Amino acid sequence: MSTLVPPSKEGSSNDHEDLALKEARITPIRRSGFPIGRRKLFVITGIAGAVAIVLALALGLGLGLGLKKTSNSSYVTTNSSFLLDPNFVVTSTPTTRYYEFVISEAVGSPDGFQRTMLVDQFPGPLIEVNSGDELVVNVFNQLPNGTTIHWHGQLQNGTNYMDGTNGITQCPIPPGMNFTYHFTINPNQYGTFWYHAHASTQYTDGIYGPLIIHSPSEPIYGQYDREALVILSDWYDVMSSGLLTQYLSTAGIDGSNYGGVNPGAEPPPDSGLINGKMNGSSFDLQPNLRYRLRLINMGTLTEFMFSVDSHVLSVVEADGTSLVPVDVHRVPIHVAQRYSVILTTNQTAGSYNVRAEMQATCYKLGNPNLNTMVLATMTYGASPTTPNSQDWSDAFPSLCLDLNNTMIVPQIPMNPPNSTDSVQVFMSFQQTTQSGGTQTLAFMNSTSWKRIAQILPLLQMSKLGIQTTFDSSQLVVVHDNITVFDLILNNYDDASHPFHLHGHVFWIIGEGDGDYLSGVSQLNTTNPPRRDTLTLPGYGWVAIRFITDNPGLWAFHCHIGWHMAAGLLMQFASLPSQIQQFQIPSYLSDQCAQQSGGLVVN
Ligand code: C2O
Known about the structure:
Immunoglobulin-like, mainly beta, 6-stranded mixed β-sheet, 32 strands, about 35% strand
């Protein structure tokens, strides 16, 4: 049995977590090609630090002199061109892997426009593990605000409290403190994953990186010679906190740059990046090898269309599920999704364009200054030159949708069991006056999620189990026994939305236009696609099925940063009686108790 817990009326609380953020901001300065600073060398402390940097520039010292650029520039490209180490030992014998992140404000200019970023390095350090390994990441927070790190796609079976979801499984790591994430990579999980800050829109400012899980049991293991990361992200030239305040305000974002006032329209990005650079990344490959390119969209708003001139891409993985290979020229990839494609370096030696075209037609509001064609260079068998290769002549319809589900056929077939429970959810954007002025917020049914100043929901459940009551801004579906569950999600918005479920791999059993109609809408239960992030079509519906066998409180949300911050999030609370057995580390509850307002558990 499921219990749907949205108390009927809207909450009166107006503390959308995002409005509370007050990050130091400096005016961006145009300055090309300067790399992102690493760790303390480039820490600027608030306005004083920013002023010092601006001064250094004005004096003509340049940051390189004034602040000592290290030879170990923070662009990971300087080390490896984002090629994975072919000597990494893939084994089924687990080990423990330790990492340390120091997250701070730093100055960088990934697209040539200098701004404050939030980073360890950019993109974040590669975490590379085998299935079954134990992962220990000690995160030091040197930001002026709290943060958390979420391990996107990790099942976290038995360790929901390591999921890193601000306001749900964890209170933010206070400034100046650290938090040790410690969990086991599921022995049956492998593929391409990532991690990112999960507090407000912080990841938009740079806190994200790749997490790769190898396994000799991965069906596509051994079908390629080398591997490379292809990290795609959209990028803004100012801090997300300021954009978010505008986005959630009555007037909406300042439309003067975009041709008008636009309440409810998402801020369009200023540029796009491949492996942390605009038009500067290079893939230096060897001829006549099969490369597994691991595409990850770490962006905030943008769906990319990925292609490489003259090279067919064989799609073999979607979000950790190995696929029956399918050849394409272009791959659409929405926010938070991953694909692996095999590319064979068997064409004429030379340089080719790698293209990540930003699907700007999917935005509510365009940015006339945005160059939507983001390029990198792939070279083999010759010295790199500026490619004069041509784009594929066949277009892929830019419909703001995923690859067709018929192309996502898992290599290990699995038919979902019959469902034993289901819920319909309707997502929409609505004007509300709950915070005083008129605002456009996002709703799941009648609920707009807020990280509220109440006891952390997970800590509360660990004390009270199924008797827990949730604040009225929390839409929570509770299952107190293992259920095969169908979630039917209807979209009352014209735009498509990439939805992600924490802690699970779901089956996509249906999708269509308009509303889902029980008994009429077609469902497919024969080896349907399995993944963790899917695109809900504009004015359409999707049906996903999953098994509620993973104890914990799991977020289900649109991964567009602006939408999540506007409340487009609900939760699943699975097996409360097992949540009560969790050995939650005391530092987690201690950090909750330290937050302003004193979130003390009973
Ligand atoms: Cu990438 Cu809530 O997650």
